[in-house]
Amino acid sequence: MDFLLEIIMTPAILACLKIAVIILLFAMPLGTLLTLMERKWSAMIQDRVGPNRANIGKFTGNGLLHIAADGLKSIFKEDTIPKGANGFLYLIAPFFGLIAAVAIFAIIPIAGPIGNFTFQVTDVNPGLLFIFAITSLNVYGAVLAGTSSNSKFALLGGTRASAQMISYEVFMGLALMGIFMVYGTTRVSGIVNGQNEYWFGNLVPMWGIFTQPLGFILFFTALVAETKRAPFDAPEGESEIVAGYFLEYSGMRWSAFMLAEYVSLVGVAALMTTLFFGGYHVPWLHLWENAPQWIVTILQILKFTFFTVVFCWFQIQLRWTVPKFRFDQTMGLGWKKLLPLSLVNIIVTALVILTLA
Amino acid sequence: MSIASGYLPILIMIVLGIILAGLFSCIGLFLGPKLRGEVKEKPFESGFIRDGMEGQRYDVKFYMTALVFLIFDVEVIFLYPWAVQIRELGWFGFIASSVFLGILILGLAYDWKKGALEWE
Questions:
Q1: Does ipTM exceed 0.90?
Q2: Which residue in A357, A352, A143 sits closest to A245, CA to CA?
Q3: Between chains, do B73 and A79 touch, taking CB under 8 Å as contact?
Q4: Distance between CA atoms of A187 and B83, rounded to whole angstroms?
């Protein structure tokens, strides 16, 4: 038994276990559920019933079986490659989106450490800089899919996507600089623990949203634009260029793009929770002295999951509420409004910190 | 935990992403039907008759955006060390970065004036 425990506790095996748990039990199920939730919620907003027909006998699960039905359907679809497409680039394009979507979860903690054991896959020093590096992989997926498909709509979608994503990447970094200043680190555990402090005695937790309200709005906008969801969906604009850069994909390859979109939706939500809503820390829990460790951990997981789900819901709500921007409006908003605003945010934050210090 | 072993899980994660995407890409090849045809292999362009991709040009604005992005993104990187160490560097660091930020804002103003940010 001790021997087995020793094998499990080696860093590599432990990391694999954590990855399996966080991806297979948290990110993937939530992402798949969101595909249905999006359809149901949009139906509710548009005063429809939404999908409810898939059934086994009498059981429909109020549309829950559509998840399985969709999956089965796309597995048995033909895999087409358009004539004149660049085969190799066409094949590897879906990889980038999924890698980026999955790798975000490497640095997100879902509960506080117990002794030496952390509920985080790895706590690397660059922390959020790693997130920036990995999200920029997304651009390659869009560009390769767009240019290799040999279709004008795909090409248009790909160029639009690349222009939009690199533009919003600039001030995604600038928007988070305020957080780095306030908590004095780029390490995720440092930022999360920094948010466990309180202002005015025990009244207000020092969450990112209170220390960096403008940074919160800017970063969230940048992330929504980065995942190319409405209102920033000009690269995939259904009414003009059908589906944008992944127009020519079919079957499971198309599903790979869709899964990447929904998993990164969960990733965005988890990231917002971690950076701006105290991560796993349950506010005012330290007032309860001698709280048993296991209750604390369960509460932390519940709090983290709750905020993540709320942010997923918020992104879906945003998509079906706000009318989409034209492409020139998207670019204008990014370069002319949000970029100057994030520069102002940096200067003001620096001034406040240095005056108070 | 040494520095290198901290990055090992990230490598595992990337490999997991590759395996996942590989699975998705291959499964259709084995399970899907294979009914090819001339019409089916045509790229979809809403039913218009294709005149091919020859002579397809990008708007120059995309290149402009890429250039502006390159300048800004590289310059932003230099601000991170200051942002993390802001309390230690104090007012001296603030003035130094203000000069740097000022040049950045001047560059933005120049791009703006020259119309590099216009998308109409």
A1: no
A2: A143
A3: no
A4: 13
Taking Cα atoms as reference points, which of A144, A107, A91 lies closest to residue A256?
A91
d(CA A344, CA B108): 13
What is the pTM assigned to this prediction?
A: 0.87
Q: DSSP letter string over A296-349?
A: HHHHHHHHHHHHHHHHHHHHHHHHHHSPPPPHHHHHHIIIIIIHHHHHHHHHHH
**Cα B119 to Cα A330: distance, rounded to the nearest angstrom:** 9
pLDDT digits (tens, 9 = 90+) for B14-26: 888 888 888 887 8
Chain A residues within an 8 Å CB radius of B5: 11-12
d(CA A187, CA A274): 12
Which of A110, A102, A106, A111 lies closest to A122, judged by CA? A106
All structural domains of chain B: 3-114 (1.20.58.1610)
Structure tokens belonging to residue B61: 């604005």
Task: Using CB atoms, pick whichever of A150, A252, A327 lies closest to residue B25.
Answer: A252
Task: List, for chain A, all residue ranges whose pLDDT scores fall below the cut of 50.
Answer: none
Domain chopping of chain A, boundaries = 78-356
Q: Are A70 and A251 in contact (CB under 8 A)?
A: no
